[in-house]
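Reading a protein record of the kind used here takes only a little practice. To see the layout at work, look at the sequence and C-alpha cells printed below.
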Amino acid sequence: MGHNWSMTVLFRCRIEKPLLDKANKVTDHLGTSTAEMVRIFVAQIARTGKVPLKLQAQSDDPLDVERRNRMLRDFDDSEGW
C-alpha cells in the first residue's frame, strides 16, 4: 500500500544566485525544474533512508568550519517565519 500524502508544505532554503542559475540551466536542459529535482532528491532520501550522494571533503578545498558556522547563523531567519 502506497503513501497517502494528504498535505504539502512549503520548504524554504537560501541558495546563492549564481549556484541556482547554474542548476536551473542543467535542469532546463533535462526538461525539468530545479524545484522538481529537489522534490525527487527529498523523496529518494525518504524512500531509501540514505542521501543519494557521495559526501566527502575535497583535499584542495578545506572546510572552514568557523566561516560555515557564521554563514549558517546569518541565514537563520527562522524567527521571522
